[in-house]
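Hello again,

I reread your note about wanting to compare the complex against the isolated chains. To keep things tidy I'm splitting this into two emails, and this first one only covers the full assembly. Below are the input lines as submitted, including protein chains and any nucleic acid or small-molecule components. They are followed by the predicted structure of everything together. The single-chain runs will come separately.
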Amino acid sequence: MNALILATDNVNVAQNVAFGIIAAVMIFAALSVVTTKNVVHAALWLVMVLAGVAAQYVLAAAEFVAVSQVLVYIGAVMVLFLFGIMLTRAQIGKETGLNNKGWALGIPVALVLFGLLAWVIVDAFGDDVLPDRGPAPTVMLSDQFLSIYLLPFIAISFVLLAAAIGAIVLARKD
Amino acid sequence: MLAVNFLLLGAALFCIGVYGVIARRNAVMVLMSIELILNAVSLNFVAFALMSGAIDGQVFALYVIAVAAAEVGVGLAMVLMIYRNRKSIALDELSEMKG
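Full-complex prediction:
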């Protein structure tokens, strides 16, 4: 972690402070998602995490991705989640039995995984400073999509179409 | 700004999501934890795009968003069907395929 102190001379302070505040809120909200006893509250905490991710995209100069994140996740996916909660249970308020019997096993698994990941990340990228680039123009993004990533773009369109039809077929009543 | 900041935040979100997938019994809560994992991954993609200067990472982040939307749609439809047939979405009760 020496790199953190060594690299502070060419680091944008305001950007770092904003990153730290948003990151703390995101971690707290994510922990609330996986520990709260109320399913609706979990969905609302998830909105906090997704909005925090969108804010981090803005800090990382990825504006188009940030806007897509807000539109798709906070706009569409969260409505789907709330519909799913509404249609699968009528009970409002705290609920028991949200966790498995062996839920405590998840804590050591997550901690060991985080330890390994953190060690590898600090070992490999410990000294790398992100350059202070301005936001990438959206034209560059669309050029990539419509040239070398055209085939995956068409494939993802088919995936979305198949998912929409599949969801209708699965959820239809008869 | 250090690359480690973004990568460690992504790792923390990923591990919290993994804990949620292991610990939760309600199928909707497991889908929410999967969303946490997918967001951690696309955060890493965007950080690497900034680090390398190429925009490909942002393209992949957009693909991840599209796949996540499809996954939630189909996943929630399956959860609804399970709920309609069994009146419960507890994952540990779905043991018909156990040998």
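For quick reference: The domain at 26-88 of chain B is CATH 1.10.287.3510 (Helix Hairpins).

B.
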